[in-house]
Amino acid sequence: MKKMGCLMVAFMFVFVMFIGCGHKESNTLVVGMELAYPPFETKDDAGNPMGVSVDLAYALGDYLGKEVRIENVNWDGLIPSLQTGKVDIVISSMTATEDREKVVDFSIPYAHSYLALLVNKESGIQSIEDLYDKDRVIAVKKGTTGYIYATTSLIEAQVHSFTSENACVTEVMQGKADAFIYDQLTIYRQNQSHPDTTEAILIPFQEGENWAMAVKAGNSDLLQPVNQFIEMFIHEGGFEVITEKYLQKEKEIFDSLGFPWFFSE
User: Fold this and answer.
1) Burial of 130 (0-12, 13-18, 19+ CB in 10 A)
2) Are 173 and 139 in contact (CB under 8 A)?
3) What is the CATH number of domain 115-201?
4) What's the pLDDT tens digit per position in 40-88?
5) Domain residue spans in the chain?
6) What angle do CA 115, 113, 165 make, to 5 degrees?
7) How many CB atoms lie within 10 A of CB 215?
């Protein structure tokens, strides 16, 4: 009986600890993002998460009444992190593609982007059509829509894939690649940072892409309030505040060129 009593006490201790941990975790929204994509997902000088998606994550946490913990995850590990429960949601400038929709559930869109080209100044490239050539070398970041576009639509060219955006830009700057395919805003910013060696071709050459938040497939309990939050955030001008904080100059350039803005409905 004494042994049985000890086992019961031990069981109750484990049970209480389990419930306590579960309760604590249920009040925390774990957000996955790759902190390597300024100004959307990056770090400040102290190494803390900052950027558009970070502000968006904390606003979502406030809306849900949850604390937010941001997990810095490599791009190709974001969806697996959802599937294994390491994170609750991904907010990382992710395009809602058909292939991704097969394994995760996406929210309604909160931003829209187009692909563009960062080209070496000596390449002579003036449009996407100039890349339909076996002698052209294209740099792309693995797992991105630029990678998908290059490997499916530019099959005559040589496509070199890298794990980071900066590696792709370096390839173009050094003349090892003729072009880097990525979203318009990043291409614009990288050209501004490297005007002596690069040029930006911002004219869209494919249909717009929708950025959305991703949750584990079947997690409607989270997806529904996330959609409600996005609608509320749009209606209350949240993205105008974010634009003014992080992207005011870029928006002025886009407006002058007649390009649709990221957060336009």
Assistant:
1) middle
2) no
3) 3.40.190.10
4) 999 999 999 999 999 999 999 999 999 999 999 999 999 999 999 999 9
5) 2-112+210-257, 115-201
6) 55
7) 21
Hey, do 2-112+210-257 and 115-201 end up sharing a CATH topology, with the first three levels equal?
yes
- Say if residues 213 and 90 touch (Cβ distance below 8 Å): yes
Domain formed by 2-112+210-257, architecture: 3-Layer(aba) Sandwich (3.40)
Residue entry with tokens 């190494």: 47
* Of 49, 13, 18, residue with least CA distance to 31: 49
pTM over 0.85: no
Chain segment 133-173, per-residue pLDDT in tens: 999 999 999 999 999 999 999 999 999 999 999 999 999 99
Print the SS3 string covering 9-54. HHHHHHHHHHHHHHHHHHCEEEEEECCCECCCEEECCCCCEECHHH
The strands making up 28-33's β-sheet, listed across from edge to edge, are 67-72, 28-33, 89-90, 214-216, 104-106
For residue 140, give the H/E element and its range: strand 137-141
Q: Which of 36, 151, 164, 170 is nearest to 93 (CA)?
A: 36
Question: How far is residue 230's CA from residue 121's CA, in Å, rounded to a whole number?
Answer: 40
d(CA 24, CA 26): 5
